[in-house]
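EI: anyone free to look at a 162-residue chain?
SC: sure, send it
EI:
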Amino acid sequence: MKNYIILLLLAFSLTGFAQEVKKGEKTYEVKKEKIFLNGEDVTTTLSVEEKEVIFKEAAVISEKLKKAENAKKAAEKLEKEKKKAEKTQKKAEKAQKKAEKALKKKEKLQKNYKKAQDNLKKAQKKYEKLKKKGKLSPEDEGKWLEKIEKLTKKVDKAKGKL
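SC: here you go
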């Protein structure tokens, strides 16, 4: 907001190409090497000292305008740099979020793989235990082998995703 106010003030001050110099009650306009009073050229009617004073004051005013313009340019440059820095920061934040998301996904896949492995080991252990005790009918044994095969496929699938 502060920069916009400065820009507006500069725009209003730079609208005229001539410098207005006040000397006493009179306001002179200096354009290049001529001095005007109320739109009339009075360069020849003024004394050398008066001309020098008016030209010096016009030069001072011109210098102030140049400094103001340079300040405006510097403010614009700072604004651009600020926007560029913000854009870079947003880009970095986006990349960080992406990396965090990928890490979470990898952790989830590892967790799923471990869980599938545990389930397979549990099922194999139980199947072996039941088989050892002789409590499996041929029908139950087929179901257990089918279950173990499904769990093995699950483990392979989870490993493939890793």
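EI: The longest strand covers residues 26-31.
SC: 👍
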